[in-house]
Amino acid sequence: MSKQEVQLAELSLLMEALCEERLTAEEQQRLEEIVLSNPDAMQYYLNYAHLHGTLYWDQALGSDAEMAVASPVTDSELPVLKQPHDQVRRRSLSRAGLAATAVLGLVVVVWYVFRGPSTEPQLADNQQTPSELTPEPEETLVTEDGTRRSPRFDSSQHPMLRLHQDGTVTQLTDQPLVAAKPKVLPPVEKLPADASDEAIVTFINHRIQDGWQAANITPSPAATDAEWVRRVYLDVIGRIPTPEEAENFLKSKQPDKHQQLVQKLLENPSYVTNWSTIWTRLLIGRSTSRGINRRALQDFLVQSFDDNRPWNDIVFDLVAAEGDADSNGATNFLLAHLNNQAVPATAITTRLFLGTQIQCTQCHNHPFNEATQSQFWEINSFFKQTKIVRKKRTDKKGEKDQTQLTLVSLRDGGTTFYETRQGLMQPAYPKFAGVKIPEGPNVNRRQELAKLMTSGKTDQLARAMVNRMWAHFFAYGFTRPIDDIGYHNSPTHPELLDELARQFADSNYNIKQLIQWICLSDAYRLSSQFTADNASDDPDDGSTPNFSRMYVKQMTVEQLYDSLLVTTNPAEIVTDYQSAWKKMQKRDQWLQQFVYTHQNEENDETTTFDGTITQALLMMNGPLVQNSLDYNRKDTILASAIKERSPDARIKKLSLAALTRYPTSRELTELKRLVKERTRYLTSRNVPPQIAVQQSYQDVYWAYLNSNEFILIH
C-alpha cells in the first residue's frame, strides 16, 4: 500500500472512533494532522461525517411528537434529561456507526480501484523522489564477489543532499525537498468604504498578483477577444453569443468595450432568467417535490434580480417568508426543506447563505473548529415555531382537489431537544452569532433569525456570496468547498475575500456591481492555456488555486440547451420572461433525463450529464443538434451559411456561430479540402450535387458542435 492509502486507512479508524465518542486526545490530534495536511483526507472526512449524519437521522431520530416540551428556562437552569431506553438507543447508534464504517470502507476500495495508485508530490527542479533516494531495506544488490549489500546512491547526483558514512542523509541547503511553500506577504491596507469600481478592480488585480508572486508562478497570457466574449456571455447570461453579437464585439475598436459589454449583459433580459434559474436550482434543486410551486419561486427571484434588489433583502424574504406556496413564491424554499425536524432547513440555510457547513455537528461537536452540537440545535430552534399546513383547494376548472402548502409561524414554538452522543437529552434555545432570542408569544423566531443574518453585524452573508460568485466565474472559490468557510478551511486569498465582502456590503449588497468587479479583473481576462511557468497551478489535482489562468469548466445542462438553441436560429431567442418561462419548462422537461435525486435528508441530487455516454449520444444525434443541422429550414444558421458565395465565408460563419471565433488558416484549409472530398464522394453515390454540398457543410457544423471546444467554457 502507498503512504496515502495507509493514511486514509488510519483516517477511517479514527473517524469510527470519533463517531462512537471514544477518541482520545492524542488520536484527535492525529486526526486533525491528517485531515489538514491532505485535501483527499479532508474530502474523505467530510463525506464520512455527512454519511454518518444521514444514517443517524434515518435510524436514531424520532418525530416531533416524541420530543419532550418544557417551559423556557435560563442557561443556569438547563436540565439534563436522561434518555429512556438508553441501551436500545445506543445499539441503534452503534448500528448506524457500523453501517457508516462499512459503506465508507467500500467507497475507499472502489475509489482506489478506479483512481489507481496515488501520485506523490512532484519535487522541485525534477529532483528524485524519496523512494529513489532511499530504497526499501529489503532490496539488496549482489556484487561481483557474490556478497549481498544494501544499495547506495551517489550523493553527488543530488544537488541538495549529502550521504554520510553512517548512512544518514542531510540537506546541503535550506531549500526544501518538495515545492517551496508560498511566501508570506505583508498585509495590505483596506480600501475606503466609498471606493470606486476602478479602485476595487485594481485591488483585486494586486491581490491576485501577490498570490502569483508568493507561489512563484507567472500567469498565462491574456485571452483573445473571442475567448473572452464567449466566456462572459456564458457566465453572465447563460448562453453563447449569437454570430452577430460576437462579430460586433470582435470588430469593435473601443478601448472600453469589455466594460461596456459587461454592463450591457447585466441589462439583458437573459441575465434575469439565467440567475433566477441558478438560484432556483440551488434553493430547491432541479427536481421539485410535490406541492412545491417552482414557478412561483422563480417568479420571486426573477422580480428580485430584475429590480436588482440587495442580496440581504432577498435572503431575508426567503428565510422569513410566510404564506402559501402560490401567492408568496419565497415560501417554497423552506417548504421544500422543513422535513425531519427542520434539520435539512437548518443545514441548507447556513450552507447557502452563510457559507458554513454545520450538518455534521447535529450529532457531535466538530473536531477541528469551535462549532458544537448545541450551536446546530440553537439555530435549528429558530425553525421550531414554523409549521407546514396542507389545505385542499379546487383547481380553476373545478374538476379536482389539489393540495396547497402554507408556511405559518405558531405563537409559541416550544423547546427544542437534542440527543448527545452519551444518550442524554438537552434543550436548545434560539441563538445566533452570540445573540439570544427571548421567548414570548409575539416573537417570530424566523424573522429574528433573518434579521440577525442580514443586518450586517456579521460578515458571513457577504463573504459567502462573494465566495460563491467567484467560484461561479472561475470554477473554484477561495475555499474548497465553497460553502465551508472557517479557520479550519482557510481561504486562498484571505485579504481579497475580506475586502470584497466588505465592499459588497458597503454597496448595499449590489449583485450586479459584484459581477462587474469580477468580470473586469485581470484574472478573468486570462487565457485558459497552461504555460511552463504556471503548470503547477492545477486545482484539479487538489492543489490550491492561484488563478494564474482561466480554469476550464463544462457547460451546465441549462447552458448547453440554451446555446444549442442559439446555434439553430438566433432570431428565436426570447427576451420577455413570460416567453422565457415556456422555454424553461421545455428545458426542464428535457434535462430531467439527466437528473437523479438521492432522496436523502438534505434533498441532494446529481446529474448524469457530465462526460457520459448519454451526453455523447445526445450531442451526436439528439433532437436539439438535429434542429441545428436542418438545412431545409430557411431560418437556420446552417441554411444561411450555405447561401454564402465562397467556401471560406461558409466555414467562417459556421465557426463563428458554434465556437465564437474565426477558423485558423490551417483549419480553414483542411476543412475546405474535406468538404471537397466529401462532396465528390457523395456525388459518386448518385447524390445530387446541391444536396451533396449541403450535407458536406452539415458535417462541418456537426463536427464543430461535437467538439470539446463547444461544450467547454474556457
Q: How many separate domains make up the residues?
A: 5
On the 0 to 100 scale, the average pLDDT is: 78
Instruction: Give the helix tally.
Output: 28
Strand content: 5-15%
Please count the beta strands (DSSP E, at least 2 residues each). Answer: 16
Separation of the first and last Cα atoms: 38 Å
Strand order, largest beta sheet? 1-10-9
Radius of gyration: 30 Å
What structural class is derived from the secondary structure elements?
mainly alpha
Helix-residue proportion? 40-55%
- Largest sheet descriptor: 3 strands, antiparallel
Label the overall shape.
globular
Low-confidence stretches: 54-181
What would you note in describing this structure?
The protein contains 28 helices and 16 strands. With 714 residues, the protein is mainly α. It has 5 domains: 3-115; 124-171, no CATH class; 197-267 and 459-541, no CATH class; 271-454, no CATH class; 557-713, no CATH class. A 3-stranded antiparallel β-sheet has the order 1-10-9. It has a 3-stranded antiparallel β-sheet with strand order 6-8-7. α25 runs parallel beside α27 (689-705). The longest helix has 30 residues, at 86-115. Residues 204-387 form the DUF1549 domain. The chain crosses the membrane at residues 96-114. Keywords: Coiled coil, Membrane, Transmembrane, Transmembrane helix. This is DUF1553 domain-containing protein.
